[in-house]
Amino acid sequence: YGMRRKEKNTTGFTLSYSLLQTDRDYREVTERTAGNQIFSRISELTRNMIHELNGRSDYKIVLSENHYADAGAGVISYFTNNRIGSIRDTVGSSLLVPYLYFQDHTVIMDGLSVKPGIRMNYHSTSRKVYFQPRFSLEYTLNDHFRLTAAAGIYNQFVAKSMILDTSRNYKLAWSLCTNNEIAVLNSNSFTLGFTYSRNDFIFNTEGYFRNTGGITRYLETAGGAVAYEGESRTKGLDLFIKKEFRNYSFWIGYTLSKTEEKFPYFPSGSFIPAMHDQRHELKIAGLVKIKSF
């Protein structure tokens, strides 16, 4: 729902709900080679569900032709319903996260605009306020060249935790960051980009660097699951090319990245390539417009 106030200012109200459910059936049987006798049997049926209900009110305030601001307030309700024995504290847990945000948009001079902003989240379980300042700028050199840069602090209150068994097989489960056993995720992000466009051709490249802390990982042992808190660092470069020909559109995306992680249980005590590290990624796509029939 939205409305316009005083011809320029606008107000909006948004209510959204999402649900993600993952079911996993794991079975393992170990038999003796002689006598065909069963030595051990494992049968585990797990279900991981996370609900998100988000209500938000947004405001856009136009101060002048080259200056306006976005502000808003809302609350997010998270709820998990897990059936995973190794995660003890997340079965049927819930979390409320009220938040406020403000972002200013100012054109300083021809071609140069800045967007300083801040987001504040209140963690209802720990009663802690998380401040997340952010800043971005955009400089348009001419009709074809544009430079962008951004930096910011980000927090996340749900985590997709990895659970490693004794054979180092892993499964993933959504968990709420209660700030007790599961820490709130925090990240410092920096990006720098360049865009060239001319006629129906677009070329974009963006470099990025990101530090992430508060990553929770479980190791299953004979005595139960043990939680460890670690950190990661990611750096990379994205390339994007798009070209349109009459009724055809083609684009190519390429990513060169490196992700390393460090946890207390690592023997070396230093950063090593992450389990989800992927050095190269290439995507090719095309669209064809077909006449009505």
Task: Write structural notes for this entry.
This protein has 293 residues and is mainly beta. The chain is built from no helices and 16 strands. The chain has a 16-stranded mixed beta sheet that branches. It is globular. It starts with a strand and ends in a 5-residue tail after the last strand. Residues 86-90 have low confidence and may be disordered.
In short:
The protein is mainly β.
Topology, element by element:
Elements: E1 2-5, E2 9-31, E3 38-64, E4 67-80, E5 94-109, E6 112-123, E7 128-140, E8 145-156, E9 158-164, E10 170-176, E11 185-198, E12 201-221, E13 224-245, E14 248-262, E15 272-273, E16 280-288
Parallel strand pairs: 9-12
Antiparallel strand pairs: 1-2, 2-3, 3-4, 4-5, 5-6, 6-7, 7-8, 8-11, 9-10, 11-12, 12-13, 13-14, 14-15, 14-16
Please supply descriptive tags for the structure shown above.
293 residues, 16-stranded mixed β-sheet, 16 strands, mainly beta
Task: Give the helix level as a range of percent.
Answer: under 10%
Order of helices and strands: EEEEEEEEEEEEEEEE
Low-confidence stretches: 86-90
**Radius of gyration of CA atoms, rounded to a whole number:** 24 Å
The helix count comes to 0
